[in-house]
Amino acid sequence: MRYVNIVLALLMVLFALVQLNDPDAALWFFIYLVPGILAAIAAFRLNLLATSGGTTVLAVLALASFAGVVYYWPKTPGFWHQEVWWETETAREGMGIMIVAVVMIVVFYTVWSARRRKIVPDQA
Fold it and tell me: What range does the domain containing 46 cover?
């Protein structure tokens, strides 16, 4: 899972940097950067997220990403088609938040799996 988290961290940071020319750059920069940082922590410092407090923060942020999916769900028919999302900002934002939610699921699974297998100690 370390390599998966490294790849996801790099992708999220890249997505965050691409947002810098967007009208609402600050919002989307952080929406992409936070899961990128969490994926990097899961890859290199898993013990920080595997504590009870770290897992709680991670769960809250994962739930926030799911709320974002509901809020930003594209209303454009066929939003997954390239010709639609290439032209429609709301379709791109909706798909972006879906990617964020998937990254959060992977990070949460990484932490949950490590705690379940007792790879990292629980530091309550």
Answer: 2-116
Banded model confidence at residue 114, pLDDT cuts 50, 70, 90: confident
Residue with tokens 């709301």: 90
What the block records as the tokens of 63 is 């739930």
Phi, psi at 80, each rounded to 5°: -80, -10
Q: For the segment 30-85, what is each residue's pLDDT rounded down to a tens digit? A: 999 999 999 999 999 998 898 888 889 999 999 999 999 888 877 777 766 666 65
Domain count, the chain: 1
C-alpha distance from residue 71 to each of 31, 67, 90, 104, 112 (Å): 14, 6, 11, 17, 26
C-alpha to C-alpha distance for 42 and 83, rounded to whole angstroms: 35
Q: What angle do CA 38, 41, 45 make, to 5 degrees?
A: 155
